[in-house]
Amino acid sequence: MSRLFGSVRARATLAATLVVAVALVAAGTAVLLSLRSNLLGEAGTSAERSAREVAAQLAAGTRYDDLSLDVDDRPVQVTDADGVLVAASEDLERISGTGVDDVRPSPAAGRDGREDEDDEEGLEPGEIGGRTTVTDGSATIDGETEDYRFAAVTVETDDRGTLTVHAGSPLSAEHGAVRTALTVMLIGFPCLAAVVAAVTWLVTRRALRPVEGIRREMAAITASADLARRVPVPATHDEVARLALTTNETLSALQTSVERQRRFVADASHELRSPIASLRTQLEVGAAHPELLDVDGAVADTVRLQRLAADLLLLARLDAGERPADARVDLAALAREEAAGRAGVKVRAEAGVTVTGSRGQLGRVLANLLDNAQRHARSAVEVRVRREAGTAVLAVADDGEGVPAADRDRIFERFVRLDAARSRDDGGAGLGLAIARDVAARHDGTLTVREAPQGGALFELRLPAV
């Protein structure tokens, strides 16, 4: 049971059925109340019409014995100002609801004389009162008992004073109509709710079929670890289609990340293999022939290995989403500090250009840019620090051959070295610029390259200024 109602389709069907059921019950109740009210109103109108017909006869001076009181077998009572029954339907056997339980006129009925003090409406002789009193009760006529709605109308006569006519209209039609409507609702509403449930079940199954296809394909991708596969995109252009598109975009990003990680591991293994193999060879030669040990070469390989390990560790931290510190860094002071001791490097810096971030990581960026510039420069490298409309700009330019336009994005990829810098004696492992751009991105900045005024490469680091 819990598994069944754990389904979106089952919950949607149950919710739709409950909503429709509540709406049907509310609408049915309103219809029944309105139907009953209308039928009671019609019954009251019919009773009033009958009472006024009898009142019109009394106003015309018709004797009690000559009154037409058995119209449509409806109960009629006529009482005087004292509430004494003076006339009634011939077949009336019992009555309630009119205030007068008698069904046979009193022997003393029919006295003459007016009693003006009982004329509450101030009627003139022969005038019928405009106010009608409506009550509910029952009556037995010819052995049949029914519920009635009674209407009471007063009439002023010349010789008999104020009389009150009570006439009833049967409520059997109202009861029958209400029972019929209730029966129809009790039968029809469950059938309608069942139809709604069935339609909702089928519609949601059809609507969720693409979602099930997406789930199955995702399960297959998880089982096969084949990130090149994609989930089917339905041609409905709705939320499910957008979900499939987003899922495929996520799979594409995941595939790209995994492939990048695999290339990174492969390239890192390759780059580490060379200095380790060289260092091992030198140590093995030194162990066999101490006089042939190249200590300087072994130290150089060790330093290179240490730098490569540090670069890989920093990239791993950046990939893990490490956020920089919130320290304030003076870019002018940082530029002078990194340029100190480097031959041919000039620094031109505006004062007060400050950013927020990690001084160590920003220093690493500048060091990598200076290493790259010195590696390719013919004679001079220039560092400039300035502020541009709330942005701190750190530019490193050289007078070398520059970077071809087609390679200006590719040089920021990991382990990428252009043809002119393929030699490991001249360049590093191809991680310096990749680290620089990743650090810039972590500091909400950008790192770009273009042609320098001297004809070489111009790298610009742009960061939000404090």
Major sheet summary line: 6 strands, antiparallel
Note the run of SSEs as H and E: HEEEEEEHHHEHEEHEEHEE
Total strands: the figure is 13
Mean pLDDT: 84
Rg result: 52 Å
Can you give the helix content as a percent range?
A: 40-55%
Instruction: State the shape.
Output: rod-shaped
Uncertain runs with pLDDT below 50, 5 residues or more? Answer: 111-118, 420-426
Description:
With 466 residues, this protein is of the alpha+beta class. The chain has three domains: 224 residues, no CATH class; 72 residues, Helix Hairpins, CATH 1.10.287; 141 residues, Histidine kinase-like ATPase, C-terminal domain (Heat Shock Protein 90). Helix content is 47%, strand content 20%. The chain has seven helices and 13 strands. Strands 2-1-6-5-4-3 form a six-stranded antiparallel sheet. It has a five-stranded mixed sheet with strand order 8-10-11-13-12. A hairpin with a 5-residue loop joins strand 12 and strand 13. Helix 3 packs antiparallel against helix 4, helix 5 packs across helix 6 and helix 6 packs antiparallel against helix 7. The protein is rod-shaped and about 155 Å long. It starts with 7 loop residues before the first helix and ends with a strand.
